[in-house]
Design goal:
204 residues, CYTH domain-containing protein, 16% helix
Length: 204
């Protein structure tokens, strides 16, 4: 795992805005984009129109000149890839993902990500509260930002500690993933909506 640069001390804040391109194109994209300090531009996106395939999976991709190409793939839920049957790769190298959807305590339900010898804990409090990715000495937190009509909601991010492009890539790509299963309330509230999206995706 090659890391070109790091944030040197202090706190770095950044903003990602919601965007979308040509609505008429079959491969039209939507997602988040912005500039993250010295790392420059980053973009995380997925296709606007879900293309039904046999395995029911969906994909989100993150890219930027200073970032590893990060791909998250999971079973489609609530219009996004989810943690069900999830796969995460950075520049083609797989990360290991673990979580316990049956646990009652928030910390026990958190997503564990092992990559390049690092151990991350990703937690979500749900209901508009910040999501956090933490490893030894580094914390990346993102909360809801500005709402753009017809496009979606941006994000306000904060990095504490000597974070690098890998830390940021994992935290940001997860913003375009349905992580409701990490919260008891989110799991309960999302179930009927997940059913509606499933019926929509499978309709002829």
């Amino acid at each position: 795992m090659a890391v070109a640069r790091k944030i040197r001390g202090g706190v770095v804040r950044f903003e990602l805005v919601a965007y979308g391109n040509d609505d008429k194109a079959r491969d039209a994209k939507e997602g988040l984009r912005g500039e993250v300090g010295t790392f420059g531009q980053v973009r995380v996106e997925h296709t606007k129109t879900y293309r039904r395939v046999g395995d029911g999976m969906d994909t989100v991709r993150l890219s930027g000149p200073a970032f590893p190409l990060t791909v998250f793939r999971g079973r489609r839920r609530n219009g996004q890839p989810s943690l069900s049957k999830a796969e995460l790769t950075l520049d083609g190298d797989p990360a290991e993902l673990r979580f316990n959807a049956r646990a009652l305590r928030k910390q026990s339900r958190a997503l564990r990500v092992d990559y390049g010898g690092r151990e991350y804990v990703y937690s979500s409090d749900g209901m508009g509260k910040p999501n956090s990715l933490v490893r030894d000495g580094v914390r990346v937190a993102l909360r809801l930002g500005e709402f753009v009509p017809s496009l979606g909601v941006g994000r306000i991010g904060e990095v504490v500690g000597p974070g690098d492009a890998v830390d940021l890539a994992i935290a940001i790509v997860l913003e375009e993933v349905d992580t409701d299963l990490l919260t008891v309330t989110g799991t309960a509230l999302s179930s009927p909506f997940a059913l509606l999206h499933h019926l929509s995706d499978t309709a002829e």
